[in-house]
Amino acid sequence: MLQILLESEFPPEHLSQLLRSATMPRTEYTGYGFYVSVYHPRIGKLRRVFSGTPALHGRLGEHDAGFIAFLEDDQLTLETFPWDGEALPETFRDSDVHLATEQTI
Predict the structure, then answer these.
(1) Residue 69: which of 56, 83, 55, 50 has the closest Cα?
(2) Residue 59: which residues within 8 A CB-CB, separation 6 or more?
(3) pLDDT for 19-44, tens place per residue?
(4) d(Cα 72, Cα 54) in Å, to the nearest integer?
(5) Cα Rg for the chain, rounded, in angstroms?
(6) DSSP string, 26-48
(7) What is residue 14's three-state secondary structure?
(8) pLDDT < 70 positions in the chain
(9) Burial letters 77-96, b for 16+ CB under 10 A, else e
């Protein structure tokens, strides 16, 4: 998923290496969706990068979600949010979510 969202920022192997050597993921369930963040000094501090293109769609049963990646202050954060306004269940993140890009929805 991150390779798709961040393909314009990192070649796939570079992103994989960065994630392997980053801090343990910090997860926050907001009661609505999730934030998962890792820290690594090679992510960079100079600018904020937002990536939601191509749009990714995740589905678990009747729950639909979107994903956005942020790079800022040496931190990579993946936001998972509900598309329909209904809160995602806390188990969403650890489940077998089916992904599709906007072209395959």
Answers:
(1) 50
(2) 65, 97, 98, 100
(3) 999 999 999 999 999 999 999 998 87
(4) 20
(5) 14
(6) EEEE-SS-EEEEEE-GGG-SS--
(7) helix
(8) 46-47, 52-54, 102-105
(9) bbbbbbeeeeebeeebbeee
